[in-house]
Amino acid sequence: MDLDLTVVIVLLAFLSVAGVVVVFGRLLAERTSINRRLSVDAPSSSAIFGQVQPTWLNGFVKKIDEKKFGFEGTLRAKLRRDLVRAGYFSDDAMRIYIFSRLAAVVVLPLATYVAISLISPDTKFYLRMLAVAIATGIGLIGVDFYVARRKRLLQVENRSVFPDLIDMLVVCVDAGLSLDAALARIGPEIGRRSRVLGTNIAILGAETRAGRSLPQALASFADRLDLDEVRSFAVLLRQSFELGTDVAEALRVFSDEMRGKRLLRAEEMANKLPVKMVLPLGACIFPVILMVVMVPVVIRLLSMFQQVGHH
Predict the structure, then answer these.
(1) Contact indicator for 112, 139 with CB cutoff of 8 Å
(2) How do the domains of the chain map onto residue ranges?
(3) CA 184 to chain centre
(4) Of the CATH numbers 1.25.40, 3.40.50, 1.20.81, 1.20.1260, which one belongs to the domain with range 157-263?
(5) Minimal CA–CA distance to 41: which of 163, 272, 209, 289?
(6) Which DSSP string corresponds to the chain?
């Protein structure tokens, strides 16, 4: 038992060090770049998002920000961009992410070992170590999997709401509003349908008020949403500004195109439905139909064999 406990302590220490190296080596904390793009007079990210910034993690990752472990800033920028695309706009999102990965790597294997020891104390040692290794793997990839899944879901949601944004923008521009005023007007309306998209529009407005040109702010807006439709929208408006064409007419044509694309996506999903139904039909319904058809035949054959046997 003492040897078993010693091995577990050594293993957990190794996993803790490995978790620190993997988490802090790959994902380094950095303050959000949004505040650097906003002036003092512009609303801060806290005011835009209405979130309370947690401060209990500041000391935990402070040295990480200072030393940076010799890594380039591109990795930190990529992590920040992924978190923003997943809907996490807080300044401390990176800190919470790093702390969550570290906690998952350390706590999950320990909790797994303790649970196995309490529930099934007779479990062999190598099976316990296998369960601890699996829990460690889940702890390493679990947080990344959650962020990636949330990003995919938000992309689907934003792709569904974005055509309505274009339609509302066309109405506002036709009514005589400028593009900046139209975006500010439709922001709360879009926020009722999609909080993340509404927040991105608020950031767009804050960037333009801070002095960035509208094409640059739209390019940043497209990068945060990571949608081809939004990139096309940003390029369309930039070209309209550069060439001096009618923005309202360009938006009207783009709105018709977006509406057609949404119809094509619906038709595509409908056409995929028969293919997706093959597996559940084959796995669940076909065996039942086969049983209903074959059971009476089998019963009749068995009765015939019994009659032949009696004769």
Answers:
(1) no
(2) 2-154, 157-263
(3) 26
(4) 1.20.81
(5) 209
(6) -HHHHHHHHHHHHHHHHHHHHHHHHH------SHHHHS-SSSPPHHHHHT-PPP-TTHHHHHHHHHHGGG--HHHHHHHHHHHHHTT---TTHHHHHHHHHHHHHHHHHHHHHHHHHHH-TT--HHHHHHHHHHHHHHHHHHHHHHHHHHHHHHHHHHHHHHHHHHHHHHHHHHTT--HHHHHHHHHHHHHHH-HHHHHHHHHHHHHHHTT--HHHHHHHHHHHHT-HHHHHHHHHHHHHHHHT--HHHHHHHHHHHHHHHHHHHHHHHHHHHHHHHHHHIIIIIHHHHHHHHHHHHHHHHHHHHHHHHH-
The interaxial angle of helices 125-174 and 93-119, nearest 10 deg, is 150
pTM for the whole structure: 0.63
Lookup result for tokens 């591109």: 74
Cα distance between residue 221 and residue 235, in whole Å: 12
Averaged pLDDT of the chain: 76
Residue 133 has pLDDT above 70, yes or no: yes
- Structure-derived torsion over alpha carbons of residues 16, 20, 23, 28, reported in degrees to the nearest 10: 160
Determine the pLDDT at residue 83: 87
pLDDT tier at 48 (50, 70, 90 boundaries)?
Answer: very low
